[in-house]
Backbone:
């Protein structure tokens, strides 16, 4: 449906660039300096982890460096890629293990480093990296057919991830062995529809087929298969998403899973890795199918779930976030989470487990690569984010810039400059929440794609404004959430922080990459006193999703309600209140974007007012 422009043609601007700069100044941009599993990894000749963590980190660090045009970061990315290639064995095997260890080496890491090399090639056009990728995938084909490596554990449930680098190679040169390998992986890999029944009731046990990150990746499996094999897309992703959402969905477009599916409760956790993998799946699904629902889902995840689970300075993150989250304090006894430990919801360097420490880095950079897509006859502005595209159309240099504070303000201005007259279609995706919209003050009714088809000459501007209202959305248990545009709103809970500096298993936590507990200092037991919301737009802070200075608030009346803690815990709210009857008179309060509230109540009742 849509294709990607050269990755170097897209540059983030405005608040999106600032978000990437904060990421570069925080954990993402410094993991290779402070974290042993990246700094001293076996991938570069060290003695620490030689499996998924360096590839995960590079999957975000490379586009971050390239989008920011940061020479120091680009040099550090080159250093890692060159070291990995230098360690490639003569037969093409590229992972850091000896030949006798290959059979028991989970080749998920090989799929992942393949994705990284393909990504690196798209930015740098490196022939050396492309040759290394070719040899690595060809080696995998030979070893798999000779039963010298096998598909098990993570590789068995993530087999389709290998299609990303295979697609890159096939686009370059369509050789038969690529399809042979892809077919073999599909034959040996897990068939997710077989496990649907296990998604409908949460289990307090760990399994691969209910693992939330596996499922976040899985959503795109038919789309990547269809492209590589030339098959017709039948909509499996839509069917599987509906089932997951019905039994495990959250108010911010994700699914519960800590690490495995946890049911529909708003006090259950969602792993950060799942958020960024769901985003990536939605990106590929929208580009492949053109169905607007995937872009809508992508935005809900990106503007709500992603920023909520990372600290303002992006030096710390949670492993698990909860939609109704009133404290981030270690559980003194049994963990509330079904399959994660008692520290999984703390903000820190590697709470619970370190995969999210390296993997969350891909979220914002890959989102930035999807702002503009190549459409038949021209260009699609698929996400209304501040960014600039520089390309040639019919040989004519063209730049398209979106000046925007979306999603905080539902308006933007496109500036299109051409060096000579050139005819093309400029398409704008209109988000589903927009009841109607204007282009240069001309009113238009709701549509999926608005197309400007003309001969562009010199500099032309097109102002877009989307019209919508705050709305109450029904959630399970008779509760409600509030949405405005692409943003979900929550009642923020004030808190004090407790900084934890320590060392465990040779990994040091010290400021600014130490751990933090968040202790609530304000009340959380509230319900909506009505459906009237007053919008207050503010100037954007230097931190776009600032917890101290949110860019927009909704003022509304709320009442206290009778709401207990979850049984056996005093830092977790029950999934719903005892009663929706008000226990106080209405009082004015302010809701903030979900991504700005580290402690929050998001799903609350519409109260029965006191007589």
Residues:
């Amino acid at each position: 449906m849509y294709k990607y422009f050269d990755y170097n043609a897209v540059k983030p601007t405005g608040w999106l660039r600032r978000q990437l700069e904060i990421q570069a100044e925080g954990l993402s941009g410094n993991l290779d300096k402070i974290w042993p599993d990246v700094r001293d990894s076996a991938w570069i000749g060290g003695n620490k982890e030689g499996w998924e963590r360096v590839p995960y980190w590079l999957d975000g660090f490379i586009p971050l460096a390239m989008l920011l045009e940061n020479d120091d970061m680009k040099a550090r990315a080159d250093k890692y890629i060159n070291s990995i290639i230098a360690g490639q064995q003569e037969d093409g095997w590229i992972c850091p293990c000896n030949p006798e260890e290959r059979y028991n080496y989970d080749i998920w890491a090989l799929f992942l480093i393949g994705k990284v090399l393909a990504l690196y090639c798209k930015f740098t056009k490196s022939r050396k990296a492309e040759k290394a990728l070719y040899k690595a995938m060809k080696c995998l084909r030979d070893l798999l057919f000779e039963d010298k490596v096998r598909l098990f554990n993570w590789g068995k449930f993530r087999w389709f991830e290998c299609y990303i680098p295979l697609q890159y190679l096939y686009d370059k040169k369509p050789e038969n062995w690529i399809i042979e390998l892809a077919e073999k992986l599909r034959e040996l890999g897990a068939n997710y529809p077989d496990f649907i029944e296990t998604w409908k009731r949460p289990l307090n046990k760990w399994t691969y087929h209910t693992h939330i990150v596996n499922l976040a990746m899985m959503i795109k499996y038919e789309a990547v298969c269809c492209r590589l094999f030339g098959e017709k897309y039948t909509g499996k992703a839509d069917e599987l998403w509906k089932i997951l959402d019905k039994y495990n969905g959250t108010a911010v477009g994700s699914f519960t899973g800590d690490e495995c599916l946890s049911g529909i409760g708003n006090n259950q956790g969602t792993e950060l890795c799942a958020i960024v993998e769901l985003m990536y799946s939605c990106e590929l699904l929208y580009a492949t199918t053109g169905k607007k629902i995937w872009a809508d889902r992508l935005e809900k995840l990106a503007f709500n779930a992603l920023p909520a689970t990372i600290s303002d300075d992006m030096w710390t993150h949670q492993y698990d976030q909860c939609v109704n989250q009133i404290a981030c304090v270690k559980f003194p006894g049994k963990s509330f989470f079904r399959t994660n430990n008692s520290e999984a919801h703390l903000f820190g360097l590697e709470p619970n487990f370190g995969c999210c420490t390296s993997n969350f880095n891909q979220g914002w950079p890959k989102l930035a690569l999807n702002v503009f897509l190549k459409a038949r006859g021209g260009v699609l502005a698929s996400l209304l984010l501040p960014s600039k595209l520089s390309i040639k159309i019919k040989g004519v240099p063209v730049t398209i810039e979106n000046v925007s504070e979306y999603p905080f303000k539902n308006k933007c201005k496109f500036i299109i400059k051409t060096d000579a007259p050139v005819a093309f279609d400029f398409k704008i995706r209109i988000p589903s929440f927009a009841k109607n919209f204007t282009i240069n003050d001309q009113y238009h009714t709701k549509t999926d794609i608005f197309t400007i088809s003309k001969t562009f000459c010199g500099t032309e501007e097109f102002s877009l404004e989307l019209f919508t209202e705050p709305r109450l959305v029904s959630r399970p248990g008779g509760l409600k959430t509030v949405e405005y545009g692409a943003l979900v709103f929550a009642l923020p809970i004030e808190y004090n922080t407790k900084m934890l500096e320590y060392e465990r298993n040779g990994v040091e936590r010290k400021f600014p990459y130490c751990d933090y507990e968040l202790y609530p200092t304000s009340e959380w037991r509230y319900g909506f006193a009505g459906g009237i919301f007053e919008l207050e737009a503010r100037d954007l802070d230097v931190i776009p999703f600032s917890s101290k200075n949110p860019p927009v608030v909704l003022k509304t009346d709320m009442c206290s309600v009778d709401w207990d803690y979850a049984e056996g815990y005093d830092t977790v709210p029950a999934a719903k209140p005892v009663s929706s009857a008000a226990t106080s008179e209405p009082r004015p309060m302010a809701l903030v974007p979900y991504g700005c509230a580290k402690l929050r109540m998001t799903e609350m009742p519409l109260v029965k007012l006191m007589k």
